[in-house]
Amino acid sequence: MKSNLKLFFILVLVTVGTGVLWYLDDNPGNIAENDQAEFAIEDTSEVVKIFIADNFGTTLLEREKGDEYWVLNSEFKARKSSTDLLLKTFDRAAVKGAVPEKMRGTVIRNLASSAKKVEIYTGGGDPEKIWYVGSATPNHTGTYMLLETPSEGKAEEPFVVHMEGFTGFLTTRFFTNEDEWKYTGIFSYPNRTLQSISFNDQKEEHKSYKLISDTSGVLDLYINEGKEIGYSDTLRVQEQFLRFKKVHFESFNSRLTVEQEDSLKLTNPDFSITCTDIEGVATSVFLYEKDEEQLYGVTEDGQVVLVQTFVFNPLIVGIQELLQIN
After folding, report:
1. Cα–Cα distances in Å, from 72 out to 1, 66, 231, 253?
2. 3-class secondary-structure state, position 292
3. pLDDT for the residue numbered 53
4. How far is the C-alpha of 7 from the C-alpha of 245, rounded, in Å?
5. Any idea what DSSP says for residue 78?
6. How far apart are CA 304 and CA 270, in angstroms?
7. 231-266 per-position pLDDT tens digit
8. Parallel, antiparallel or unpaired: strands 159-163 and 194-201
9. What confidence tens digit (pLDDT) does each residue in 4-56 have?
10. What is the mean pLDDT of residues 218-229?
11. Rounded to an integer, what is the distance from CA 98 to the centroid of its chain?
């Protein structure tokens, strides 16, 4: 009996001890009042500028308050999915726990030498917060980070930070490669802003066609430099027209040298597509066959990109295939 009672008390002590260690090491409750642990931005709609610096370069993202898209390095439109992810991270970032004492020195040294510096501005000349983003924890469920604010200065202690509702680490969300940040949209026509599409098969001109929408949404089909033709499968033609409302390419990395890109741009494309909105603004892309999975594309500003055949093959069908005629 005494032996069982002794075993019971040992189990209780072990359980309580484990709980205390967990609380101190991996529960933000004991540091909730620490200003140096308040990484989150209370209202991300106020964020108007983000500056990221790492050992490879820098990136500047700016917007007017309320804008949907950010401006990248004062020149390009930024990829919306990536900027949305940053804002979500700023909103949900929370301290998971303190850095274990035995790892503290190593973490601080690594942050000093290789951390990504992220300045977050909500107006004014000074950032509201600066994050120093380090590597992942050994179990890849947190990120070593250190905070700096105008009022408190640079924190002395790093923390393990995670994003609520997400399992993983945050380091890879902060990068400085300009091509990875650039917006990949070619055509974007929300609601009923797309007025016409023109598909040109440069090798087989008889396959080319143009679709023009009137104010009521009825589509007129033209071939042979303006000759209008009728069609019976209205649904199929409408579906084809709608494919052009939102089209993205895959990557700015063409995997070609500068010389090869210049040579490509001097050759005639295999296909070209031009879309025009209700304001009369036209946007074109020129396509070159590559392989079964990808095509080369050249945008209006002369950038060579990769596009997926999965996305573009349905767009480059000729008039015969569209109308299902021989």
Report:
1. 73, 16, 45, 17
2. coil
3. 98
4. 71
5. B
6. 14
7. 999 999 999 999 999 999 999 989 999 999 999 999
8. unpaired
9. 555 545 554 544 444 444 444 444 445 656 778 899 999 999 999 999 999 99
10. 90
11. 30
**Strand 194-201 relative to strand 271-277: parallel, antiparallel, unpaired?**
antiparallel
166 or 10, which is more confident: 166
> 């620490």: which residue's tokens?
34
Token couple for 315? 């767009």
- Number of helices (H), then strands (E), belonging to the chain: the values are 8, 20
pLDDT of residue 224: 77
* Cα gap 78→58, rounded to integer Å: 14
102-109 contact pairs (CB < 8 A, 24+):
104/157, 104/158, 107/134, 107/144, 107/158, 108/158
158: three-class secondary structure by DSSP: coil
Q: What is the pTM of this model?
A: 0.79
> Residue with structure tokens 């820098």?
58
The angle at the Cα of 202, spanning 199 to 205, to the nearest 5 degrees, equals 75
CB distance 270 to 287 below 8 Å: yes
Average pLDDT of the chain is 90
Could you tell me what percent of the chain has a pLDDT over 90? 80
Rounded to whole angstroms, the Cα distance separating 143 from 95 reads 9
Q: What are phi and psi of 144, to 5 degrees?
A: -75, 125
Please count the other Cβ atoms lying within 10 Å of the Cβ belonging to residue 166. 12
For the cut 80, the answer to whether the pLDDT of residue 157 exceeds it is: yes
Q: How far apart are CA 213 and CA 58, in angstroms?
A: 44
The predicted pLDDT at position 16 comes to 42
The two structure tokens encoding residue 63 = 């917007």
Query: Which class for 99: exposed (0-12), middle (13-18), buried (19 or more C-beta within 10 A)?
Result: buried
Which 3 state secondary structure label does DSSP give 126?
Answer: coil
- How are beta strands 153-154 and 185-188 bridged, if at all? unpaired
CB within 8 Å of 19: residues ≥ 6 apart: none
Residue 32: its pLDDT value, please? Answer: 54
